[in-house]
Fold this protein.
Amino acid sequence: MSLRRFVNLVTLNSERCIYSLRRMDMSRQDLFYPATPAEQKKLSFQEMESIQIPPTSASFHPNPSPFAGDRWKIHFFGLSENKIICTDQSGLSLLYDAGLESSLVMPSLHRPKGGPIYLSVPDSDEQDGGGGRLYIMEQSLRPRPEKGQFEAFLYAKPDKLCLEKVWCRHSLPLPPFVLKPGFKHTWVSSYAVLGGGSHLCMSFEGFGTYCFDMATGEWCHTGEWMLPLHGKAEYLPELKVWFGIRGDRLLGVSDLSSALRGEKPELCGVLGNDYFPPDWEPLGLPQIVSMGSGRLCILNLFQTLLKNAYSWSGEPVVDEEFIVFTGAELLPCGNGDCVVDGSGSSGKGKVLQMINHKSGIYRSSDGSAIIEAVL
């Protein structure tokens, strides 16, 4: 499998409410050694080179809406390395092709999304113009009768008489428990694409795990258990496992394919990371992009605190905030005794190890370029 070239960063200038797409060419970033390093050591500021965020490739501004107040916002969904679908607080949608540097007006959503999650299935036919499928769901589900909490953009022929494929918008059914009397609220805690692109699998707080058949549009309850990863789980075809973040911010690896058989997936391992200095306090969850061939680009936001300095309310004073880009690699262990979680437990199934290559640091000079999304 060829390596992915670009990591797409979306930054926000909050004063002007302008979103900028910046494409980081990883072939020009020194985050990977030519060969896998044999020794791992902790980072320090002195050992890291400074990373410059690339210039803007395209800018986006949400459509001013009198009904949104000050909540003007654009959500960005990565369909593939080059194709990004954007929707704003009014439901207006656009597909931007970074490879062609062109935009395509899309059908509007049935309902604007407040806090969506998404799963994408790129078109496997490279000669088909580069379509695919994008599934968007509100992460917080409520008993609303109107359409729009779960939708999809599909690149397909709208009917048998149409000769060309176009982008269509479809409102999709919610899991059946949402329609039952007494339902009030749930939260999508984890989600993934399974079956080579045939099913979506989602775990809902308090309701277990369900799979959605993309062909039939039907939901199936696979179990009361929850998927072992939090948020989106991404598939690594080279290793035939899914990776994602656990609740403790560690990278977890699991074979989720058993969920389609109604069996609870188990963790293959929890990849511990004592790579960063202990005085770097993490902010939020790591952002991970698969580069192909088991290689990952990991973004971590950290802060450091001033020693013996406190605000009037007694809170520690922040010295600096910065983002660390790390090139890492997932590899099968050379023997069955490989420890992957730092505690002596190697998990079940495939035994893997994560090797960190190099890291670089990004500091925003004026705070005007806040990274909103990594695609």
